[in-house]
TrEMBL record:
Keywords associated with the record: Chromophore, FAD, Flavoprotein
Keyword RNA-binding attached: no
Source species taxonomy: Bacteria, Bacillati, Actinomycetota, Actinomycetes, Mycobacteriales
Native source organism of the sequence: Tomitella cavernea
InterPro entries per the UniProt record, alphabetical: Crypto/Photolyase_FAD-like_sf (IPR036134), Crypto/Photolyase_N_sf (IPR036155), Cryptochr/Photolyase_FAD-bd (IPR005101), Cryptochrome/DNA_photolyase_1 (IPR002081), DNA_photolyase_1_CS_C (IPR018394), DNA_photolyase_N (IPR006050), Rossmann-like_a/b/a_fold (IPR014729)
Residue ranges that the Swiss-Prot or TrEMBL entry lists as coiled coil: none
Protein name, entry field: Deoxyribodipyrimidine photo-lyase
Family per similarity comment: Belongs to the DNA photolyase family.
Length: 490
């Protein structure tokens, strides 16, 4: 009988359309399925993402007939130990292109190689692998629109024909005892993983749930995606991001289903998936941008600091800025572990341009709470909004949280869903609670203000909304400050 292969699952928690299974089958008919609980990755993730991951692992284990082995430890140690203990022929993975994953895999590969076992990387979590395409000059793309052209020209493979039956899976119960080994049934006992009851309501985890979500969206809501995807008050986007994050579905599966469709909705969805690949490509070429400004001019940017800045940061995190769309988004993040894309941009703009705080503080908060928290998409989504990233919005574009709310949540339903203090305000007036009932101009301490301008606590306009905070800053004033600071570094 040939020595067994090891299939080491990471961000590919599925069995269909998984090229690594084909590569494993080329070398052996039998395989051991393993996932490593690596503290280096678990530590920065908040409990919603870990709970979702645990759910995906349980689903994968069930699909494997209860044959998923979990190892708790450093992959650089536990994978070579496992390979040694079962006399493995080879170890198979989908390649990882993130800064940590690349280094980890290189170290595992070197350690396995010393024992004569190859680490075989097949496929990746992306439609077009990071680093695969470049500009005509051979340089990495810096602008999304040109990247998307190259990405479409390059194209992607058809889904790989794999299932749970592609390999005969070894039963971990029959293996010799291994340090750090556990079964999915014991996951709940691990600190930080077990108790998901008090956390946000999470989407159903696992491959079957991801495929169901995608097919329902494709059949019932794809038409209209292009026109409604910017509306946080509607369920108008795929909500596939947590599933894509953990590879419960591969983007290639989605793109394959869209292949025949000339519709504008299909084309816009393809573009969104291209953004995901683009940011992975950018991070692959510039791993430093996980922490540092893509545009180094921004290293000289002046940020606010001190007790007032900290208080403002807390108000932003808690959804108590007094700007309804910002607060709704920040509360959706805490309530669901997810936030609508338009509102991610509005809240990120507010932190960086109205509160003058560094993007990485907001990015860290997002990474902690997002179930779909993904280093490339998150850090570069933040950098784009802050103006220091690739293909950035022009520096003078500062999102106005009031007009953005009125435009993209035109009936105010999204705000009322997440900000109960404002539920008694009908329609889009909810985006300007300070203007309520103001037949005559409101007055702040500094004189007359317009309905555009927030007023301070205790003004008559707040009589009906006293539980809701007044705006912590005046957007019009902070916009001027933001532009002045951009001017200093241009
Ligand atoms: C500040 C900020 C932080 C973000 N952080 C993350 C993150 O941590 N993880 C994450 O997956 N996305 C992130 N995004 C991108 C985007 O907001 C989410 O992918 C999207 O809201 C997920 O919802 P959906 O699956 O319904 O999207 P859909 O509109 O249905 O799009 C389908 C898929 O395309 C991809 N996609 C869509 N928009 C983008 C985008 N702007 N950038 C990259 N990929 C995109 C996602 O994989 C998404 O699931 C961030 C955006 C911003 C502005």
């Amino acid at each position: 009988m040939p020595d067994p292969a090891i299939v080491w699952f990471r961000r590919d928690l599925r069995l269909t359309d998984l090229p690594a299974l084909l590569a494993a089958r080329d070398r052996s008919t039998r395989a051991l399925a393993v996932f490593v609980l690596d503290d280096a990755l678990l530590r920065p993730a908040g409990s919603p993402r870990i709970a979702f991951l645990a759910g995906c692992l349980r689903a994968l284990d069930a699909d494997l007939g209860g044959r998923l082995l979990l190892l708790h430890g450093d992959p650089v140690e536990v994978i070579p130990q496992l390979a040694h203990s079962i006399n493995a022929d080879s170890v198979h993975v989908s390649a990882d292109f993130g800064p940590y994953g690349t280094q980890r895999d290189d170290a595992v590969q070197a350690s396995l190689a010393a024992a004569g076992v190859p680490l075989i990387r097949t496929g990746s979590p992306y439609a077009v692998t990071p680093g695969r395409i470049s500009t005509k000059a051979g340089t990495p793309y810096k602008v999304f629109t040109s990247y998307r052209r190259g990405w479409l020209d390059h194209g992607w493979r058809s889904p790989a024909a794999t299932t749970a039956d592609s390999l005969a899976w070894l039963d971990p119960a029959e293996l010799p005892p291994l340090a750090g080994a556990l079964r999915c049934s014991a996951l709940g006992a691990l600190p930080g993983i077990g108790d998901e009851r008090d956390g946000p309501a999470l989407p159903p985890p696992g491959e079957a749930a991801a495929l169901r979500r995608w097919r329902t969206f494709r059949d019932e809501r794809l038409t209209g995606y292009d026109t409604h995807r910017d509306r946080p008050d509607r369920d108008a986007t795929t909500r596939l991001s947590p599933h894509l994050k953990f590879g419960c579905i591969h983007p290639r599966t989605v793109l394959h289903d869209l292949r025949e469709s000339p519709s504008s909705a299909a084309s816009v969805l393809r573009s969104e998936l291209a953004w995901r690949d683009f940011y992975a490509d950018v991070l692959f070429h510039r791993p430093d941008t996980a922490r540092r400004n893509y545009n180094p001019r921004f290293d000289a940017m002046r940020y606010d600091a001190g007790p007032d800045a900290e208080a403002a940061f807390d108000s932003w995190r808690e959804g108590r800025t007094g700007y309804p769309i910002v607060d709704a988004g920040m509360r959706q993040l805490l309530g669901e572990g997810w936030m609508h894309n338009r509102v991610r941009m509005i809240t990120a703009s507010f932190l960086t341009k109205d509160l003058h705080l560094p993007w990485w503080r907001g990015a860290r908060h997002f990474m902690k709470h997002l179930v779909d928290g993904d280093l490339a998409s998150n850090q570069h989504g933040w950098q784009w909004t802050a103006g220091c990233g690739t293909d950035a919005a022009p520096y003078f574009r500062v999102f106005n949280p009031v007009t953005q709310g009125e435009r993209f949540d035109p009936d105010g339903d999204y705000v009322r869903r997440w900000v109960p203090e404002l539920r008694h305000i009908d329609g889009k007036a909810v985006h300007r609670p300070w203007a309520r009932g103001a037949a005559a101009p409101l007055f702040s301490v500094n004189g007359p203000v317009s309905a555009d301008m927030p007023v301070s606590v205790g003004t008559p306009g707040y009589a009906d909304t006293s539980a809701y905070p007044s705006p912590i800053v005046d957007h019009a004033e902070e916009r001027v400050v933001a532009l002045a600071r951009f001017g200093e570094i241009r």
